[in-house]
Amino acid sequence: MTEPIIQLKNVSVEFNSKKKQVSAVNNVNLTINKGDIFGIVGYSGAGKSTLVRLINLLQKPTSGQVIVNKQNLLELSDKELRISRKKIGMIFQHFNLMNARTIFNNVAFALKGTDLSKKQKNDRVNELLDLVGLSDKANNYPSELSGGQKQRVGIARAIANHPDILISDEATSALDPKTTQSILELLDQINKKLGLTIVLITHQMEAIKQISHHVAVMDQGKIIEEGSVYQIFSEPQKSLTKSFINTTTRLDETLKVLYEQENVKHLSKDQKLLSLSYFGDSTDEPLISSLYEKFQVSANILYGNIEMLQGQPLGNLVVILSGTEQSVQNALNYLNESRVKVTELNPSEGDINELN
Ligand SMILES: Nc1ncnc2c1ncn2[C@@H]1O[C@H](COP(=O)(O)OP(=O)(O)O)[C@@H](O)[C@H]1O
Ligand SMILES: [Mg+2]
Predict the structure, then answer these.
(1) Are 30 and 108 within one domain?
(2) Dist. CA 15 → ligand 1 center (Å)
(3) What is the pLDDT of residues 112-122, one digit of tens each?
C-alpha cells in the first residue's frame, strides 16, 4: 500500500540579499510515501537542507504547497503547526547535544511539555536508550561518547515523541565508514520496527545505496532524477547521477588502472573493450559463455562485480571480446539486444565518464 505522507507541490525558495538572489529550491515536486526510506543526494549547495526544512516549515516556501500527513502546513495556525512539527523528528551532522546534561537528560529534554508522568518519562527514556543501544551510557556526558554514540543519542531524542517522519540531514557525514554503516543499520531497523518514514539527506551515494528504497538526485535547486534505488542504480539517465553511482562502485578508478595494462593499451581491430552492466533477470543467463557458442567470440574478463541491491542482483563486467571483426560485431549486436547495457570503451581516449 502506498500512501503519500509528504507532498511538496511546485515549491520554490528564494533567498534575496543585496548582492545576489539565490534560487535554493526551484519549482520542486516531490511525493514521499508512508514507511519509505527516501534518499535525497546532491553536492553541497544543491538545496537539500533548504528542501527538507520545508517539510516542517522551518523554512517557508516563496511559492508552492507543503502537505504533510494530509495537512496543508501553510494553512495551519501557529499552535496547529507546533503540534504537527512534533510528528517530525530531525537529526543532524553535528548532533546538537547539550554538553552540560547527561545522556539520559538529553533524551528526557525532548519529553518536556508532554503530559507524561515522571515515571512514564523515565520509562520512555530508558526504552529509547535501549532501542539505540546506549542503556549503559545513561549517566555519561556527551563529551564521553564517540561520534557514533552521540548520533545514537540524537536519534533517541528525535524519535522520543513517536514521530511519523524522521529527517536525517547529513547525519552520517561526520562519521567514519564503519560507524556510518552502524548508524544506517539503526535507521533501517527503526524504519522496519516503527514504520517510521525516513528522509535521508546526504552527499554520500553509498549511504543511499545501503538503506534507501527511493532516491532523488538534486542539483541547483532542482530534482533532476528520481526513482527506486534499483532503477536509478541500474539505469541512471543523468551524468550527475552516474558520477554519484561511480563513487560507490569505483568503476572509474578500476578503469584507470585497466587502461594502463599492456593488453588493454594495444587492442587489435578484432578486439573490443566493453563495459557490461547487467541487472535483474539478465544475470541468470550464461551470456559470456554463449558468446563463444554463438559467435566464436571469446571474452577475457578483466573486472567483475556483482552485488545485491534491494534483493536484486546488479553487476558490472569489463571484458575484452576477441574474434574476427565481423563476429565481434555480431556478438556486440547480440549483447545490445539482451538486457545488458553495453558501453564500448576507448582506452586511448581515456573515456570513463560515460559509465555507470
Ligand atoms: N538562510 C539562507 N540565506 C541565504 N542563502 C541561503 C540560506 N540558506 C541556504 N542558502 C543558499 O541556498 C543554496 C542551497 O543551500 P542548502 O539548502 O544548504 O544546500 P545543501 O544542503 O544541499 O548543501 C546555497 O547556495 C546556499 O548558499
Ligand atoms: Mg545541507
Answers:
(1) yes
(2) 8
(3) 989 999 999 99
